[in-house]
Amino acid sequence: xxxxxxxxxxxxxxxxxxxxxxxxxxxxxxxxxxxxxxxxxxxxxxxxxxxxxxxxxxxxxxxxxxxxxxxxxxxxxxxxxxxxxxxxxxxxxxx
Length: 95
Fold this sequence. Notes:
By secondary structure, this protein is mainly alpha-helical.
């Protein structure tokens, strides 16, 4: 009976040691996965930001092409006309 009790106690100590070892291994793996996951998220965000910039550029290019085909004045056209009006006004005042 004493041998059996001794084995039960030793098995309990062994189970505790194994549980602690398993726990520490799980914590270590969790830390490694957390670092890996953070890197994956960071890489994905960088890729999405790059894709967004490319999409914005394509959108601007498309808008510029559409605007060029429409019969409306651009800001550059209006600025050029405003400058011309100012020049003509100055000529009229000096005449």
